[in-house]
Amino acid sequence: MADQDLINYARDAAGRGDDLFALLATDATASESDIRRAFRKKALTAHPDKAGDAYDPALYERIERARDVLLSPEAREAYDSGMRAILQKKLQREQMSDKRRRLVEDLERREAEAKRAKTAPQPQPHDAERRAMAERGKAKMEEMRRLREEAEVRERLAKEKEAAAAATAAAAAGKPDMGETAPGGHPTPPPVVDDYDERIADLEMRLKESQQRKAEKRQRKEERKAEKKGKTGEKSGSPPAPASPGEKIPNNPPPSTAAEPQADEDKLSKPVEAVPPAPPPGAGGPPKASDRFASTLARLRAAQAKKDEEKRRKAEES
User: Fold this and answer.
1) Is there a contact between 14 and 83 (Cβ–Cβ < 8 Å)?
2) For residues 16 and 76, is the Cβ–Cβ distance under 8 A?
3) End-to-end CA distance of the chain, in Å?
4) In terms of C-beta density within 10 A (0-12 exposed, 13-18 middle, 19 or more buried), how is residue 47 classed?
5) Are 109 and 43 a contacting pair, CB within 8 Å?
6) 96-100, 114-118, 226-230: which range is least confident on average?
7) CATH number of 3-119
8) Interatomic CA distance for residues 208 and 28, integer angstroms
9) Hey, which residues does 187 pair with through a beta bridge?
10) Which of 181, 198, 214 is nearest to 289 (CA)?
11) Which of 13, 168, 179, 287 can pair with 18 through a Cys bridge, CB separation 3.0 to 4.6 Å?
12) Rounded percentage of the chain residues whose pLDDT exceeds 70
């Protein structure tokens, strides 16, 4: 410790009335060797290595400073002077009357209060304004933080709502319509949307085209037959009237003509064989391709109706 600091500490200790000799367990007549011996003896109980858990840092510091003050001539002189002034003042106070003693004590008390008031930090005139500004700034920052958090919450909720709407729209687009609600509270199953109906329509169209081609072919065949009959009638003239069952056709020999005209007349005189009509669909014989396709189409439609009925029953049970 510097000498001036040590002297100031000695004056303060004297002003407080601290008895440094009593702290070291010695008296005012002790020499330097007596003070060192007293310090070592006192340190046996106050040193941190000796005291252990009972170590008191403030007490050990006071003992060290008392030793330093009493071993320094300047600091000890300042301490002794202060202690003598205090003792003299105390003696004078004891010799005073009670009334005067009270007046002196009151005066000293007020002087001490005035000194403390001077040394205490005085509030500056702008401190209140600074505190108010600091409070306003803090409130503004808190309001900005609250608004930012609310904006973040609103943005998050909007994103969640958009995501939910997009998911609902995607689910509605990917999920078939369940149709109207049945009387029992269960929704009727939607119609099965697949390519079965398209296949049926394609087969029906092919069947119609096949029937149309067959009809056109039959018509062309009949037209060719009619054309052949017309040509035959033109060559032979008017056809002879059909004979009755009992009437005999005279077998007159043809006139003597060339061989080729005779052969043509023989061909024309022969009756034309009629084409047998096609058997009806229910009659015996191998079925036509159109009949087989119609029966296959009927079986397919029956299977599809059964499948739709099973799906509708499962939907009602669920």
Assistant:
1) yes
2) no
3) 96
4) middle
5) no
6) 96-100
7) 1.10.287.110
8) 143
9) 181
10) 214
11) 13
12) 71
Task: State yes or no: pLDDT of 8 exceeds 50.
Answer: yes
**Dist. CA 36–CA 71, nearest whole Å:** 8
Task: Phi first, then psi: give them for residue 131, nearest 5 degrees.
Answer: -65, -40
- Six-digit token pair at 146? 């609250």
pLDDT tens readout for residues 42-61: 888 888 777 777 788 888 88
Extract the tokens encoding 113: 């209060």
Q: Look-up: residue for tokens 């000194």?
A: 115
191, two tokens: 């119609």
Per-residue confidence band for 216, with pLDDT thresholds at 50, 70 and 90: very high
Distance of CA 122 to the CA centre of its chain: 58
Q: Which residues contact 260 (CB under 8 A, 6 or more apart)?
A: none
When computed from its CA atoms, the radius of gyration of the chain, rounded to whole angstroms, is 69
Q: Where are the alpha helices (DSSP H) in 175-244?
A: 196-236
Q: What is the C-alpha to C-alpha distance for residues 305 and 64, in angstroms, rounded to an integer? A: 112
The neighbour count for residue 82, using CB atoms within 10 Å, is 19
Give pTM, 2 decimals: 0.32
Query: What's the confidence (pLDDT) of residue 301?
Result: 85
Q: Which two tokens stand for residue 140?
A: 């503004």
Q: Please tell me the distance from the alpha carbon of residue 291 to that of residue 279, in angstroms, as a whole number.
A: 13
> 252 is written with which tokens?
């007159």
Q: Tell me if residue 254 falls in helix, strand or coil.
A: coil
Segments making up each domain of the chain, as ranges: 3-119
Q: Grade residue 189 by pLDDT with cuts at 50, 70 and 90.
A: low
Two structure tokens written together for 188: 């009727």
Quick check: 39 and 21 in contact, CB under 8 A? no
